[in-house]
Amino acid sequence: MEARFNLFDNEISAKFGKRFAGASLVIDQSELPKATRELVSLRASQINGCGFCVDMHTKEAAAAGETPVRLNLVAAWREATVFTDAERAALAFAEEGTRLADTHHGVSDETWAHVRKHYDDNQLAALISLVALINAANRFNVIVRNPAGSYTAGLAASLKS
């Protein structure tokens, strides 16, 4: 399988991609836990059917020490006992923030209250930014049909410098 379009070989998309990757540095430097960032990115990518991003965030999370059990249960997080209450709040937020078309209210008041209980203003700002950023990344990769499987952990970090 080959991508329809190589985003890195085009001058416009390569410039945009560099700035897009740079925007994630703000989230990376926030106090939102790395595990939460990867779990949220993985869940949104699963919902959006972005194989490339599922591959990337699974491998990045594993490289950061995430367990196979937790990674395998992200899609079924509601029925799993391996996530903290804070992570469960972030996963619910990621799902509702990703599935905006499913309800005209977006993120529910209940989910918002649950997230506010576990995250301070800076962490919440990072979480909001992360959900927006991963959904945009999913769209890039799904549109051009970037294939999954060849991502190497650490590659995304090299694009941010």
List keywords for this structure.
globular, 8 helices, 161 residues, single chain, AhpD-like, mainly alpha
Main sheet: strands, sense, barrel = none
Low-pLDDT ranges:
none
What is the approximate shape?
Answer: globular
**In the CATH hierarchy, what is the class?**
Mainly Alpha
Whole-number count of domains: 1
Number of strands: 0
Distance between the termini: 29 Å
* CATH level 4 superfamily: AhpD-like
Indicate the CATH topology. Answer: AhpD-like
* Topology pattern, helix = H, strand = E: HHHHHHHH
Provide the CATH architecture: Up-down Bundle
Strand composition percent? under 5%
Topology at a glance:
Elements lengths: L10 H18 L5 H15 L2 H13 L4 H6 L11 H14 L10 H10 L2 H24 L10 H5 L2
Quick take:
This protein is mainly alpha-helical. The chain contains eight helices and no strands.
Protein architecture, described:
Keywords: Oxidoreductase, Peroxidase. It comes from Pseudofrankia inefficax (strain DSM 45817 / CECT 9037 / DDB 130130 / EuI1c). Residues 26-96 form the Carboxymuconolactone decarboxylase-like domain. By secondary structure, the protein is mostly helical. The chain has one domain: Up-down Bundle (AhpD-like). The model has no long low-confidence stretch (mean pLDDT 93). 30% of the residues are buried. It is built from eight helices and no strands. The chain has helices at residues 11-28, 34-48, 51-63, 68-73, 85-98, 109-118, 121-144, 155-159. Helix 2 packs antiparallel against helix 3 (51-63) and helix 5 packs across helix 6.
